[in-house]
Design brief:
- This protein has 146 residues and is an alpha+beta fold.
- It has one domain: Alpha-D-Glucose-1,6-Bisphosphate, Chain A, domain 4 (2-Layer Sandwich), CATH 3.30.530.20.
- It has 3 helices and 7 strands; from the N terminus they run E-H-H-E-E-E-E-E-E-H.
- A 7-stranded antiparallel beta sheet has the order 1-7-6-5-4-3-2, covered by helices on one side.
- The longest helix has 36 residues.
- The protein is globular and about 45 Å long.
- It comes from Nocardioides aromaticivorans.
- It holds the Pfam family Polyketide_cyc2.
- InterPro entries: Polyketide_cyclase/dehydratase (IPR019587), START-like_dom_sf (IPR023393).
- This is Carbon monoxide dehydrogenase subunit G.
């Protein structure tokens, strides 16, 4: 059993593209600024194991493989509980950087089964995850740029 999800979001931060890319490509330090990223372990130069848990009592185990670390695109391939990709497009603006987030994934097993009835709840859970990203990234970048 497989279910597909697509997510998109966009927002702006008051930091340079290079500063934003620097934080986004520093996976090992995600737990310092993104509350829903609970643990990260480096598996290789371009690969990390990540555990994420948003509002629902379910922890995702993921492996992230870097696809692009160079602006204007920061992208990882996702495998594990989700298969697909997550991508940030970074565009300079007059006051900082516009981030355009896109994620396309498929889920398997129990998560796919739960999504038949609970798709709106899983989408809400993802929205909470991304709110943590937006807020935490802005806080982290205010320290980096200081």
């Amino acid at each position: 059993m497989v279910r597909a999800y697509e997510f998109a979001d966009a927002w702006e931060v008051a930091a340079s593209v290079d500063d934003v890319a620097g934080v986004l490509t520093d996976l090992e330090h995600y737990p310092r600024w993104w509350p829903q990223v609970r643990a990260v372990a480096k598996l290789g130069p371009d690969t990390a194991w990540v555990r994420c848990r948003s509002a629902l009592p379910y922890t995702l185990d993921l492996v992230l493989d870097a696809v692009s670390r160079t602006p204007p695109v920061v992208e990882v391939a996702l495998s594990g509980d989700l298969d697909g990709y997550a991508r940030f497009g970074l565009t300079p603006t007059a006051t900082g950087t516009r981030l355009e987030f896109r994620q396309e994934v498929v889920v398997h097993g129990l998560l796919a089964l739960a999504s038949y009835a609970g798709r709106p709840v899983l989408a809400w859970n993802h929205a909470r995850m991304m709110a943590g990203c937006r807020d935490g990234l802005a806080r982290r970048l205010s320290v980096v740029g200081a």
